[in-house]
Amino acid sequence: MDSVKRVPRGAWDTHYHVFENETYTFAPGRHFTPGTATLSQLQELHSSIGVDNVCITHGFAYGADCSSWLDYMRRYKGKVRGVCVLDIDGITDDTLDLYHHAGIRSVRLNFISSGAMHDLNKQMALIRREIEVGRSGPGVWNIQIQQPEMAHWPALRSIAAELSMPLVIDHFALIQGLSIFKSTSISADQLARELAGINSVGFAALLDALRDGNLYVKFSAPYRCLNDQPGYVDLETAARAMIAANPDRVLWGSDWPHTQRHHLRKGKDPTAIEPFQQIDNGAWVESLSCWMSQEQWLKMWVLNPRRLYDIYAE
């Protein structure tokens, strides 16, 4: 288990973004403006890692306009799936059909623009509203969320069990490690609450939700949880616990081109171009490979995404 492993053939990157800013415009009211990150640059990254297939995650900076996503889907070589953002009030059956046939199998909820990142009631209301759209859709989809509150997981576990479609949580469920606080000003009480982390009731409920089988977790963006590049060893205990809970519900995502953490945007002009983080993806993949068995490694990269994104149906 503790040896470095090669990325297997047929590997999937289930979470990344493309921003070709000279071709597509961003949505008004966005919470940040990314720099340029092209499809050809992405493919260079995938070639260096060994990724063959992708699930394109629509960037919130574009709002619910998925025209860029449809273009990137057409241009990518290999198996392609996608995660869209929907305008719930304006979506039509024809658009859902178009998206499904293009390869969309997931809808991403924007807890940021809706003010729900730290509000459990808003999160649950948005998930339930999205379910109704999914039930009327053309095929098997899933719901993707990003939220940082471990304390929400007892309630989110219950709603995940009720869903008629899988629930996917981004970025290691944003569990926070000690290294992320070393360069920040934080009270002793807040630090104690944050570091309860893997020993908390919330984390136990997250693991139970994985065991229940209707929750997937993306092993993506470790830098949103920790500061200890390039190996992110501070995340190992939590990651191993998630893998042990259900190795059939773990996915890998690069989160390329590595946008900044949400809290670093406070007080800044959201229309100013934001630089990307510089991440050693190769070193991170090697480190992660030492935390699981060869069988678990194959599941994360190949078998789990094929199941979730409906590839076996083809």
Summarize the SSE layout with pairings.
Elements: E1 12-13, E2 33-34, H1 39-49, E3 53-57, H2 67-75, E4 80-84, H3 93-102, E5 104-108, H4 120-135, E6 142-145, H5 153-162, E7 167-169, H6 188-194, H7 201-212, E8 215-219, H8 236-245, E9 250-252, E10 273-274, H9 281-289, H10 294-308
Parallel strand pairs: 1-3, 2-10, 3-4, 4-5, 5-6, 6-7, 7-8, 8-9
Helix pairs in contact: 5-7
What this model shows, in words?
The chain has 314 residues and is of the alpha/beta class. The chain is built from ten helices and ten strands. The chain has helices spanning 39-49, 67-75, 93-102, 120-135, 153-162, 188-194, 201-212, 236-245, 281-289, 294-308; strands spanning 12-13, 33-34, 53-57, 80-84, 104-108, 142-145, 167-169, 215-219, 250-252, 273-274. The chain has an eight-stranded parallel sheet with strand order 1-3-4-5-6-7-8-9. The chain has a two-stranded parallel ribbon with strand order 2-10. Helix 5 (153-162) runs parallel beside helix 7. 40% of the residues are buried.
Task: Compose a concise summary of this entry.
The protein has 314 residues and is of the alpha/beta class. It contains 10 helices and 10 strands.
Mean pLDDT: 88
Largest sheet: 8 strands, parallel
Alpha carbon gap, first and last residue: 33 Å
Element-by-element helix/strand order = EEHEHEHEHEHEHHEHEEHH
| Shape summary | globular
**How many beta strands in the DSSP annotation?**
10
Q: Over all CA atoms, what is the radius of gyration? A: 18 Å
Indicate the structural class: alpha/beta
Strand content: 5-15%
Biggest β-sheet: strands ordered side by side in the sheet = 1-3-4-5-6-7-8-9
Share of helical residues: 25-40%
Q: Count of DSSP helices?
A: 10
Low-pLDDT ranges: none
